[in-house]
Write a structure and sequence with these properties.
The protein contains twelve helices and 13 strands. With 435 residues, the protein is an alpha+beta fold. The chain has a domain of 181 residues: Histidine kinase-like ATPase, C-terminal domain (Heat Shock Protein 90), CATH 3.30.565.10. The strands form two sheets. Strands 7, 8, 9, 10, 11, 12 and 13 form a seven-stranded mixed β-sheet that branches. The protein has a six-stranded antiparallel β-sheet with strand order 1-4-5-6-2-3, sandwiched between helices. One of its GO terms (biological process) is cellular response to phosphate starvation. Its EC number is 2.7.13.3.
C-alpha cells in the first residue's frame, strides 16, 4: 500500500472511530469549529473551489464508519486505547486533519492543522476555507478548494472536506495539504524547460541562418567569416548540452564513488584544464594549499566543481589579473551544525572542515544577485556571459556537487573588487594515517 493511501486509511479509521465513539457515548462539551478565529480578508490570495466527483475518499469514509460502531461496542478502556493510538499516529502526519460532529462542534485537530490554519497573515484565509467547507460537508457534499497565498513567500494549500455518515449523519472531516513545495518545484521545472529551449534554439537557429547565407555567398572571405561564426555557435550548443549532461549526471546519477582524495590533486587537475583559457587572457592561477589536506569525495565531481569555479573566475576577470586558489582546515567545534552530515569525529572525519576557496579580482556580483547565482541558467550579465561562452549552468553544477558531499558553498563579492567562492567539506585523516 502506498504511503498516501495508508494515511487516508488511518485518518478515515480515526475519524469514523471517533465519531462513532462520541456519538454512542455522550462526549464532553466541545468547542464549536472556528470559534476562536474570525473570518478575514487579510492577505493577498486567490481561491478556486469545486465539488469532488470522486468523493475524495467518501466511499472509504462510509466503509470506515463501521469501525466507529465497532469501537462504540467495545468496552470503554479498549475503545479509548484504540482512539489514543490512532490519535498519536495522526498527530505526526504532514497533512492537517480537522474533525467535527454533525452539529459542527470540533472534536479534533492535529498539530499540522494548528500550524497551517492559525489565524495570522494570509493563513486566516485557509482557516476560513476549512470552516466553509466543513459546513458544506455536513450537508452531504464532498468539496475541495485551492487557496493561493501570494506572500512573500508564496504558499499554496489544498483544503478538502467530506461527510462521514452511517445514514443518520455523524460529522465531517477536513484535510489541509501544503502544496507550496510542489508548486515551487513545478515552477522551477517549467522555467528550466523554457530556458533550455531558448538556450538551444538560439545557436541552432543561428546555424541555420548562417548556413543559408553561405549557400548563396560567392565571396570566399565572407564564407570563411561565416563558417567561423558557425563553429562558435556549434560550440556554444555543444557546451550547453555537455553542461546539461554533467548536471544531470551529478544531480540524478548513481555513479558517485567516494574515496579519500587529496585536495591538491583535485585543484591541480582543474587548473590544468583551465590553463589554456587563463593563458589566453594573461590570467595567472596561483595555488596555495597543503598537500596533506584530504577529503572524502567523488574525484570527478570535485574536479568538475573546482573547474567551474575557475572557469567562472577567468570569464569575469580582467586580462593580466590573478586568481587565487587556497585551502585551509578549520575546526568545526565552534559550530558543530556546520560539519557535513555522516562524517562526524567517530568516522574518518577529523571533526574539522576544509575551506577550499577560489578568489578573483573581477567585476564582482551585485548584492541583489548573490542569492540567485546558483540557479540554472541565471546570469548576472547576460551580454557578457554570451560573449564569453557561458552556459549559466556552471554554478548550478557546483551547488549539486557540494550537496552530494553534504557540504556547502558560499559566495562573497564586492562589485568592482572581486568575488570569492568557498566550498566547505569535511576533512579526513591523511591517507598514510589511515593505512
Amino acid at each position: 500500500m502506498q504511503a498516501s493511501s495508508l494515511i487516508i486509511v488511518i485518518v478515515g479509521l480515526f475519524a469514523a472511530a471517533a465519531l462513532g465513539y462520541f456519538a454512542a457515548r455522550s462526549a464532553p462539551k466541545k468547542q464549536p469549529a472556528g470559534s476562536k478565529n474570525t473570518l478575514s480578508s487579510a492577505g493577498s490570495a486567490s481561491q478556486s473551489e469545486s465539488d469532488d466527483p470522486q468523493g475524495s475518499g467518501t466511499e472509504d469514509a462510509d466503509i470506515m464508519t463501521g469501525a466507529g460502531r465497532a469501537v462504540a461496542q467495545e468496552s470503554g478502556s479498549s475503545a479509548s486505547d484504540l482512539l489514543e493510538r490512532l490519535r498519536d499516529a495522526i498527530e505526526h502526519i504532514e497533512q492537517g486533519v480537522i474533525l467535527c460532529d454533525d452539529t459542527g462542534a470540533e472534536l479534533f485537530r492535529n498539530q499540522s492543522a494548528l500550524r497551517y490554519i492559525e489565524a495570522r497573515d494570509g493563513l486566516v484565509l485557509v482557516e476560513a476555507a476549512v470552516e466553509e467547507l466543513m459546513i458544506k460537508a455536513l450537508t452531504g457534499r464532498s468539496v475541495r478548494r485551492e487557496v493561493e497565498l501570494f506572500g512573500p513567500p508564496a504558499q499554496s494549500f489544498v483544503v478538502s472536506a467530506q461527510p462521514f455518515t452511517d445514514g443518520a449523519g455523524l460529522g465531517a472531516l477536513a484535510i489541509v495539504e501544503d502544496h507550496s513545495l510542489r508548486r515551487r518545484t513545478e515552477t522551477v521545472r517549467r522555467d528550466f524547460v523554457a530556458n533550455i529551449s531558448h538556450e538551444l534554439k538560439t545557436p541552432i537557429g543561428a546555424l541555420g541562418l548562417l548556413a543559408e547565407t553561405i549557400r548563396d555567398e560567392p565571396e570566399s572571405e565572407v564564407v570563411a567569416r561565416l563558417a567561423e561564426r558557425m563553429i562558435v555557435e556549434a560550440d556554444r550548443a555543444a557546451h550547453t548540452i555537455d553542461d546539461l549532461l554533467e548536471l544531470s549526471r551529478i544531480e540524478f546519477g548513481d555513479e558517485t564513488e567516494f574515496d579519500q582524495i587529496s585536495v591538491q590533486s583535485v585543484v591541480s587537475e582543474a587548473t590544468a584544464r583551465i590553463a589554456a583559457a587563463a593563458g589566453h587572457s594573461g590570467i595567472e592561477v596561483v595555488v596555495d594549499l597543503s598537500p596533506q589536506i584530504q577529503v572524502l569525495g567523488d574525484r570527478r565531481q570535485l574536479v568538475s566543481a573546482v573547474f567551474n569555479l575557475l572557469d567562472n573566475a577567468v570569464k569575469y576577470s580582467p586580462e593580466g589579473s590573478e586568481i587565487l586558489v587556497t585551502a585551509v582546515v578549520e575546526s568545526a567545534e565552534s559550530d558543530p551544525q556546520e560539519l557535513p552530515l555522516g562524517l562526524g569525529p567517530s568516522g574518518l572525519s577529523t571533526g574539522d572542515i576544509v575551506r577550499l576557496s577560489v578568489a578573483d579580482a573581477g567585476i564582482g556580483i551585485p548584492r541583489k544577485d548573490l542569492d540567485r547565482v546558483f540557479e540554472r541558467f541565471y546570469r548576472v550579465d547576460r551580454a557578457r556571459s554570451r560573449a564569453t561562452g557561458g552556459t549559466g549552468l556552471g554554478l548550478a553544477i557546483v551547488r549539486h556537487v557540494v550537496s552530494n558531499h553534504q557540504g556547502n558553498v558560499s559566495v562573497d563579492s564586492i562589485e568592482g573588487v572581486g568575488t570569492t567562492f568557498t566550498l566547505s567539506l569535511a576533512a579526513i585523516q591523511p591517507l598514510q594515517e589511515n593505512s
